[in-house]
Amino acid sequence: LQLPVVYQKAKEQVVKIWTTLQPLLTVHVGLASSTTLIILEQCGKNKGYQDRDACGFHPEGACCVLDGPEKIESAINMKTLQKSISVEGIDIIFSRDAGRYVCDYTYYTSLYYGSGRAAFIHVPPLSKSVTADFLGKALQTIILAMLEQCGVDHI
């Protein structure tokens, strides 16, 4: 499911995922155009959304959920994950700041409605060294490790 770079639409889709599918874990993947790394995001932040989205809007009160907690941590320990996996050809790092834009907004919303059972991975743009096939295999490795942390056997 591809989410638009629009706060409200992204929120609607994330809420729909949690209310209709009720997944064990939701993994979101976003483009970080200025990186060459894969970035595992640990938490989502509720406030600070001043930048306007693709439609020219920003959230009311510059926050995701009125009266929601300041930040929500993922149930997945991203630092442990980052230390335990490797993908040849690309570095994987850990982050506690998903950027206060639609990616972070989406992540916080998913963590809120999923009670922490969400993950967010920032990926670099496709290039000669980072092909769609390469990135897909890297994401598969990462997501399988996340599921192991959740106590799920390989699918």
From TrEMBL:
Family, as annotated: Belongs to the peptidase C15 family.
Pfam family, one: Peptidase_C15
Keyword Protease carried by entry: yes
Gene it is expressed from: Pgpep1l
GO MF term list: pyroglutamyl-peptidase activity
Protein name: PGPIL protein
GO (cellular component) term, any one: cytosol
GO biological process, one term: proteolysis
InterPro entries: Peptidase_C15, Peptidase_C15-like, Peptidase_C15-like_sf
Keyword terms of this UniProt record: Cytoplasm, Hydrolase, Protease, Thiol protease
